[in-house]
Amino acid sequence: MAEKKVYSKLGEMLAKGEFILTGELEPEKTCDLSHTIQEAKEMAPYVVAANVTDSPLGIVTINSLAASHIIQKEANIEVIWQLTVRDVNKLGIAGMIMGGHALGLRNILSLTGDHPNMGDMPESKPVFDLDSATLCMLVREMVDKGTINGYEIESPPKFHVGAAANPNSNPMEAEALKIGRKVEAGCEFIQTQVAYDLDKTIEFLTEIKKYNVPVLLGIFPMKSYAMAKGFDTFVPGVDVPKDILAKWKSIKNDYKTDKAKQKEIYDQANYEFFKPFITELKNKDLLGGVHCMAVHYPRIFPKLIEVIKG
Amino acid sequence: MIVTTKKDFEEIEDALKSYNNIILIYCGTCSVTAQCSDEKSVNEMLEHLKNAGKNVVYHQEFKEPCDFRQDLQDWRNVPQEALDKVDAFLILSCGAGLQGMLDLFDRKNIVKPIFIGLNTHGIAETERIGRFHVKCAGCGDCLLNYTGGICPVTSCAKGLMNGPCGGQLDGKCEVGNYEKDCGWILIYERLKKIGRLDLFVQLRPAFNWADRGHQKSVVFR
After folding, report:
1. A161: which residues sit within 8 A by CB, 6+ positions away?
2. pLDDT tens column, B13-27
3. Which domains does chain A have, with CATH numbers?
4. Contact residues, chain B, for A90 at CB < 8 Å
5. B-chain residues near A170 (CB < 8 A)
6. Which residues does residue A163 pair with via DSSP β-bridges, in sequence order?
7. Which tens digits make up the pLDDT trace of A241-255?
8. pLDDT digits (tens, 9 = 90+) for B108-137
9. Per-position DSSP letters for A36-78, written without gaps between them
10. Quick one: which of A199, A192, A133, A198 has its CA closest to A167?
11. Domains of chain B with CATH codes
């Protein structure tokens, strides 16, 4: 088999089969990226790369191509450019992929994207000319063959492409079979939706192991009780375990007067929850790494490194 | 059938504001089933027009306004004195019905405007009168052989070729607050039931739009 081509640090780590930690950055409805850049700088020493989101929940934010480029340049962090098929047709996306390469990006996470109907511009036309699998196919054609629709690209782009999966999905079989399609389409890594249910996660990861694609498990360390409660209430299909909610609530109440201590206890509680969770999956050889989606919580990364290195 | 619903009369009144003498035409086929051009709906529209101060000089059912051949026949019944008076036409039909009439107008040298009184939603299954489900998008490249007979274009909010997406929860779609079924879970369940999950695992290319789009005609003779 030909040696796998490597275009980024992420690609290199994937090729070596190393356990990977990635982070997530969520630019907001602003043209000023300074807060996100600051967060990226704090995260940078600990992660292989960080995702930059593309108007999640269909709520308009600064464009993810522009944000990815600026963050990568300013924060000295490698970016995984989240690219949804929601807003741009195949022709436009092919152009963006070349643009992304020219701007120094080398990793794409191919996503369907939340329907515009969910967000703050519901009257916007839902495009979905491609889907997350056919976007992987397009990237692979452009990168591996150096063509678009068979037409030669003078200087082709170089990208690694990944896709998403949901270990909480019901029916699980439909989701697992879809991963097979994505891998066939050329997806090189999977980042999952947030998981809290260990048994369900083991079942799902075992089911998709046959596709032989590195899976980075989505985790969401909770910065505060409000964050945990909000995540439990507002993220469809993800339930934060009741005992976690109770524990976080007690931390909130017990350390009301000592915020510094409270932070320390929250961080420790996250460590204590995620350490055995990740370790078990790692021991079962089901994981290629961890994708931490806790935005605005960069101080957790030193602890996460302890989690994944153990 | 082609499913239609009634436009708000305010919108119709606004379209007709510069015109007084009106000929009302109504479809005798799909829009009748949709209860948009049945006798009750026609009487209701006549009443609305009268209350809005319009003079309906003539009204008539056209059996299938979308069928040019039928329109030529039905047109014979339209009296000349009504045509002498008319300022504008109003039609209760789908969009194809109105545009069929435009071709007839060209043939008959009618240079009066025609306005539509209905909204067209698509090619639908009739569950019962009052419950219609748009099932076919008229793509021109039917995928039903690969999807257990369930159309991913009309049943998936995103019209995905390789679903389901991450927006499904327990078989329900994120669009519409998880009240409607996820089309791709329906496809999965149907294919599983008939023992054809081999079709579900097939990677499908992006839809080919090259032959789709505007001004499409089907001409085979």
Report:
1. A107, A108, A109, A110, A135, A136, A139, A140, A143, A186, A187, A188
2. 999 999 999 999 999
3. 9-223+275-309 (3.20.20.220)
4. 206
5. 169-171
6. A110, A190
7. 999 999 999 999 999
8. 999 999 999 999 999 999 999 899 999 999
9. HHHHHHHHTTT-SEEEE-SSGGG---S-HHHHHHHHHHHHT--
10. A192
11. 2-122 (3.40.50.2300), 141-200 (no CATH)
By the 8 A CB rule, do A63 and A82 touch?
no
Interface contact B165-A131, CB threshold 8 A: yes
Placement of tokens 């109440």 in the chain: A253
Helices (H), B80-135: 80-85, 95-108
Q: To the nearest whole angstrom, how far is the Cα of B19 from the nearest Cα of chain A?
A: 32
Yes or no, beta carbons of A137 and B159 under 8 Å apart? no
Q: Which residues of B touch A128 (CB under 8 A)?
A: 158-160
Contact B158 A169 (CB under 8 A): no
- Global pTM reads 0.95
Looking at residue A39, its amino acid is E
Q: Answer yes or no: do B160 and A164 touch at CB < 8 A.
A: no
| B210 — pLDDT class (breaks 50, 70, 90) | confident
pLDDT digits (tens, 9 = 90+) for A9-65: 999 999 999 999 999 999 999 999 999 999 999 999 999 999 999 999 999 999 999
The amino acid present at B121, given as its one-letter code, is H
What mean pLDDT is reported for chain B? Answer: 96
